[in-house]
């Protein structure tokens, strides 16, 4: 057997693994885990919306810490981290072989899947590290991490441009997420024919409301990064926690933060719908 046939055989085995029931289960478990994280972040944001509210950080680290405080919290974190790792593997299979749908094999779609695979791999690593006892990993402050990264980048040659372009990319991604949610682009990824009318209404409510809220958070975080680049001040950068808190500093007071927080909870519920109805 020559090397070419061995390579072809290996590719065939990898493709079969990517299309297996196990990979489908990994992807669906990942959507469940993503939903848990967003629901918890949204609830934490609701707590900090008003004076005297809970001061826990409203980001992934805060969600992880919240789970850790519950009975069997460490075991739950192990389950959550493994489920997120399943999402990373599923996204990696999409990057390598294309996802479900007629246009999911395009290079751009596969590149986006690769980026998501890297992101979810990092999330899985941070959650599992926290479960293993590294409290400075999954439970770390997103605000401090963002400022540390920005400070390092600003010290590089052309650092202001790097941070500014990065912020513009994040802000653009947020607007893209929100617009696609409002246009209900997620329909093409879901098994709509298997939904009842009420379920579809719930999917559309959580998908539009949740996607718009999630996109708004990303867009605001990107805007803060752009401000940090322009003013050459890393402290201007905000992670998810400070970005959410900034919504309470608008003229409408805490009510915008309440709306965004409820939207993040809705996106978590939408993720659970994806776990059931997503074309995987």
Automatic annotation (TrEMBL):
<feature type="transmembrane region" description="Helical">
    <location>
        <begin position="31"/>
        <end position="52"/>
    </location>
</feature>
<feature type="domain" description="DUF1206">
    <location>
        <begin position="209"/>
        <end position="278"/>
    </location>
</feature>
<feature type="domain" description="DUF1206">
    <location>
        <begin position="113"/>
        <end position="184"/>
    </location>
</feature>
<feature type="transmembrane region" description="Helical">
    <location>
        <begin position="161"/>
        <end position="182"/>
    </location>
</feature>
<feature type="domain" description="DUF1206">
    <location>
        <begin position="29"/>
        <end position="97"/>
    </location>
</feature>
<protein>
    <submittedName>
        <fullName>DUF1206 domain-containing protein</fullName>
    </submittedName>
</protein>
<feature type="transmembrane region" description="Helical">
    <location>
        <begin position="72"/>
        <end position="92"/>
    </location>
</feature>
<dbReference type="Pfam" id="PF06724">
    <property type="entry name" value="DUF1206"/>
</dbReference>
<keyword id="KW-0812">Transmembrane</keyword>
<feature type="transmembrane region" description="Helical">
    <location>
        <begin position="252"/>
        <end position="273"/>
    </location>
</feature>
<feature type="transmembrane region" description="Helical">
    <location>
        <begin position="203"/>
        <end position="230"/>
    </location>
</feature>
<feature type="transmembrane region" description="Helical">
    <location>
        <begin position="113"/>
        <end position="132"/>
    </location>
</feature>
<dbReference type="InterPro" id="IPR009597">
    <property type="entry name" value="DUF1206"/>
</dbReference>
<keyword id="KW-0472">Membrane</keyword>
<keyword id="KW-1133">Transmembrane helix</keyword>
